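EI: anyone free to look at a 204-residue chain?
SC: sure, send it
EI:
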Amino acid sequence: MKNIKYINAGAGSGKTTELTRILSEKLSETDNQGNPKIAPSQVILTTFTELAASEFREKSRERLFRDNRADVAAELDSATIGTVHSVALNFIQKYWYLIGVSPDMKVMSEDDLQVYISESLGDYVSQEDLDFFRSYGRFFNLRDSQSHEDINFWKDHLLTLIDKINNYKVDIDQSIKDSKAVVDEIFKQKAVLNQNLLDTFKKA
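SC: here you go
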């Protein structure tokens, strides 16, 4: 794609430092009349967490000061920097009348999200499935972060599958066959499922 720079690097490798350098350079560029080519208000930057967005804004400001662009650093608050949700919400609230939605739209709370997820999954999961998941979780002693019985362990997995099906070309029938083949391979030795084997299986 045109004007796309792809940075592929692991955690802690300096992606934020590199991106702040690029942003500082772009904001410091001027035309033949000395006018900035890009204003901070024209910047849109999204992250996965609020912490990352805050860190990026502060590091960008520090970099601009080091590059003697205090004037640009002072305007950085006008840049649209935040999580994907907060940036999208900002534009919805600003241009709601163009897209035909309410200006009072808010990011859904976690509690409301769980309610909607449960309602939507009602079309996919039967009571028989729920009974099986509960017995499976008890058999493998699945626990949540508070060490309580985790009866909803399957939800995140199912939502991940639905997300991938919606975004990628997935052959469901072939995927089921491949998954069954993996299970068959694991148990082809007809081993007795003792506790040590179960513990090893859970870790794997």
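EI: The chain is about 55% helix and 5% strand.
SC: 👍
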